[in-house]
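User: Assemble these into one structure.

Assistant: Restating your components, then the assembled model:
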Amino acid sequence: MKMAWHAGYPLSQTVLTSVYVESILMPAPSKVEHAHFIRDPTCTPPSLMHEVLRSYCLGLLKTCGEVNARIMNEHFYEV
Amino acid sequence: MDSGCLEPGESLDEEFDVSRPLLPEEALGIIDQLLCHEVSVSMGLG
């Protein structure tokens, strides 16, 4: 019997391989306001394309977190 | 893993400049790739 959770790829080999996702997560932001690609306030403000990409990355990471939390809270049995 | 093979001056850290200007098609391409990654993770979740 195929284990369903083996059929997918882990986050570490997919979503977390993106340098943009990594730049948002490292170091882990405590607030959404801190979640930027570049956190240096003296740098030039991010462009519109960066804001669009940042918005997508934040939504993606939140979705992955919610799915992960939902799975962790479920009871499951290994056969 | 291959840290013993670093040349002098090389770094393990990714040196890609995430603040470099992005064209709209580049941003869409990155979003498309991330969407593919997210789907591949979801494939294993039933």
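Helices of chain B lie at 24-42.
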